[in-house]
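User: You have something folded?
Assistant:
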Amino acid sequence: MEYEAVIGLETHVQLKTKSKMWCGCANAFGSEPNTNVCPVCLGMPGVLPVPNDEALRLTVLTGYLLNCEIPRFAKFDRKSYFYPDASKNYQLTQFDKPSTANGFVDFEFSGLGSVEGMGRVRITRAHLEEDVGKNSHLERFSGVDFNRAGVPLLEIVSEPDITGSDMAYEYLNALKDILIHGGVSDCDMEKGMVRCDVNVSVRPVGTRELGAKIEIKNMNSFSGVRRALDYEIPRQIAAVKRGDKLIQSTRRWDDVAGITEEMRTKEHAHDYRYFPDPDLMPLAPTEAWLAEVKSRVVELPLARKRRFMQAYQLPAPDAESFVNDVPLGNYFEAMAGLSKSPKAVANWVINNLRAKIAEANTRDAAEQMSMGIEPGEVKRLTLTDLKFKPEALLELVGLVEAKAISNAAAQQVFGEMFDTGKAPAAIVQEKGLAQVSDTGAIETFCDEAIAANPAPVADYKAGKVAALNSLKGQVMKLSKGKANPALVGEILERKLKA
């Protein structure tokens, strides 16, 4: 009997707010332990939580970005559990009335479960809650840092639509890109801003009933999720085939050993004793408030990629460059509509401009740090700091397209533009870089090259077509790189064949 995996993911994302969910303590990573705390986030008796308005907005914004419905009534509940990192002995979360529900994420994927190169994972809900503290287990004792306690946390729960480890990996990356582009979270996994719980079961192919749900808890990397599923799915299938009975449980992933290990049998909802928090009013967003939040919706990465490919005839890698670097894409788009050759403009922006900026920043950073400036204080060159305007780059592309200058000369002109801000035409004139397209002049250069290089001439006439490149090089040398390469090739071939 063949078996298939059924996978759902619960992704926990810290929201991009300056303060915590219920108090004014800083939402900041890297502070000394237990310095960003107060009686509210420490759960002291008698304190009252006050909701973070920006966190509420970011939650609903996420709902819009994930194609969710936005209910007109939501509330916060207390979820009781007793761990050292939960100082209140409960977590404030949304249980049966979340702020968003019933959405989906579309993403590029061509494996099992895809349709025409696309995958879709439905979103059950994206609900708002608070993060807990962080336990540290040392050799002889353990400690708890409550700096993270109370940080706004969004839990994005998917439907069990995921068919395997590769689909899970692509979905998580697509979700992260959406949240970063939308300004919801920085999604820095090294800072613990994104964590994932994996729910996986197996069943015979063709059946509808779900098997026992096994949860793999607190995954902190997407590649770890993929590796854990690559282990856990075969483990479950092998157990079922042996006749073992799988029970609902929670496991941990040991990335070093490459195995999952059981932690405990899984609690059910009633074990958490949910009840509405008596200190917090329900949420009833007005139409005006929702409209304000909706105005913050941005173009999703996949839609942006498709639009760049369709509108400007860009290949997928170029479009992805402009998706991954939004300011660079905006800079390109401001020029692309004014150019007859958007692809040529994209080449200069991606291959030349981006490289020059990176080179300048590397050099400047080294200089500033040598002067004692801390890495975090280093000033970096951005697109708004460029010495030339976008129109100058369009002018340069036009000169190349019109064959007024060669590609090699254009590289020299661009370097001068970047350093001085001078106009391309002025640089071409100053440095004498105009391309020679005069047929008579090029014929003279070709005659000289043919006369001075009998060996490649003989090779070409003997059928060695590659020998023509050697002669082209000699002509370009004689013309000091100014001869039109296309004309050089045509004239050489004509003369040699004659």
